[in-house]
Amino acid sequence: MINSFPSVKRRRQTNQAPGPKEEVRANVKNFELQKNDKYYAWLFLGPSFLVLGIFVFYPMLRTLYLSLFLTDSFGRPTVFVGLQNYLNLLTSKVYMASIQATGVYVIGVTAFTIICGLLLAAVANQKIRGIEFFRTIFTATMGVSVSVSAIFWLFMFNPSIGVLNQIALFLHLPTVNWLTNPHWAMVSVITTSVWMHLGFTFLIFFGALQSVPKTLYDAADVSGASSRYQFFHITLPMISPTFFFVAVITMISSFKSFGLIDLMTAGGPTNATNLLVYRIYKDAFVDGNYAVASTESIVLAIIIAIITFIQFKLLAKRVNY
Amino acid sequence: MENTIATQANLHRRVGLVFKYLLLSVLAFIVIFPFILGLWTSFLPTTQIAKGALHGTMSWQNYVDAFTQTPILRYLLNSLVISVVQMFAHLFFASIAAYAFVFLEFKYRDLLFYVVLATMMLPFEAEVIPNFQTARTLHLLNHYAVMIIPFLTSAFGIFMLRQAFKQIPLDLKESADVDGLSHWQFYWKVALPYSRISILTLAAYSFLGSWNQYLWPMLTTFTNRLRPVQDGLRQLHSEETATNWGLIQASAAIVVIPTLIVLFIGQHYFKSGLNEGSVK
């Protein structure tokens, strides 16, 4: 019944000047339509709001709630402690070290992903034969999941049989304990993460480079500008929105890194790669410390919310510096 | 005189071209090196790999072992079922929600949309504790459903399809109303076909996202019968790695090939979808 649009009547109306009677009828129909829309709105939005409610809104509030309590081993709140959990975290040297490690990781991954992705995109943005083949290869890491990446790279980082140390030996360089030395472990996970992000970043930058109007370069050629000058004064400014988009996406994604850490270092050695999300997992599901893990979750959520908010602002503005 | 200048320019151009190809090849080699090495060693006997050697008798033995001695096929099947169901369900629920935000008139429409948009700021990783408890309360643990239900819809999907539906000319909707098309009919016959590039992009995004899930399945599944492929690899790795690198590399190769196929097929749509999104 709800589908029955009185379409015939409506057609007739358009052919006549609307008299008072028709106007009333049209109003009634509009009212019916709107009632109809309301019904459909419930139907169409209901499932999404149910899922978002149970698995996004409720858990956020629940996490906030748990962060104000002490919890038992089942994650049930016991004693209200106010902001004490937050104070404990902020004065905890181990947690601050984890924040610092996450900062190093996120900045490292974002910076190198952008540099490498932009380099690949610039190199692939030429009209020469067979370029499609290279472009396909450059996007290939998009299809490699976190477990597979971790396994491929774990093999290369292996201290005795790994190819990296074998190359080092061949070149008479000192070998490195890639994953058991705190500093090199960070280098190793950053390298793997950059590699994983490369395909997607390349694709986005490449799309942006292709959309820069060619006339700009022609004009620069006429005035004799060098290609380096063109890159810094035409290309970079033109793709700055993409630049920020990639930076934000990569930052958020690396803030959430979990699988890579879990498979490659398990947060070690001596917490050197114990990044925020891995800490949350360990505190909650290994040590049963749900209150602390909830507090850490809120801190993570605040960080990500700030970055996402900045992203929205930037996307709304479509910056062109 | 003019001739020598021309040949010189020609030579310049050729050297430049060789240099370009050289640069491209070196970069391509670096990018796919981990991949090639993984594939290469997956054909070598483990005894050779354990010695650090990268040569030996190539054979399919590791693949035979992976298929017969590990549950890798089961992992693949699990992931395939979960990802395909999740993909279609996600497309459906996100698209009807997006439809409501574009074509329906109702109270608080914009407010509700901002509420959905706000959830994009909340990372799933920060909510796993209550979600795990919810899954336990609902008796969903160790079941396919637990890996699908939380991802039936997403703010990102709704947002993306809303952008796409907004491109549909309003005249189309008006004439559809005149013709007496119901919302379902307009959704199915006009809105979806009109936005097929966005739909395909979201499908690929959704499938890969589900296929690459790691933390949530790790928390909620405990048996090989249900374990999806990423956590399956984690399991294999923790059981086997010290002894059997050949088997691990073969398993990783088996896992990566389907996603690469999806990627290369979907790439065309993916690219245009992303460009479409960035223009608006």
How would you characterize this protein structure?
The complex is a heterodimer of chains A (321) and B (280). With 321 residues, chain A is an all-alpha fold. Chain A has 2 domains: 7-50, no CATH class; 93-317, Orthogonal Bundle (MetI-like fold), CATH 1.10.3720.10. Chain A is built from 14 helices and 2 strands. In chain A, strands 1-2 form a two-stranded antiparallel ribbon. In chain A, strand 1 and strand 2 (77-80) form a beta hairpin. The N and C termini of chain A lie far apart (56 Å). In chain A, 37% of the residues are buried. With 280 residues, chain B is mainly α. Chain B has 2 domains: 2-41; 70-279, MetI-like fold, CATH 1.10.3720.10. Chain B contains 14 helices and no strands. Chain B has helices at residues 2-41, 46-50, 61-69, 72-103, 109-118, 128-137, 144-148, 155-165, 170-178, 183-194, 196-211, 215-220, 229-240, 245-279. Chain A: Residues 1-22 are annotated as: Disordered. Chain A: The chain crosses the membrane at residues 39-61, 103-124, 136-156, 184-209, 230-255, 298-316. Chain A: Its main location: membrane.
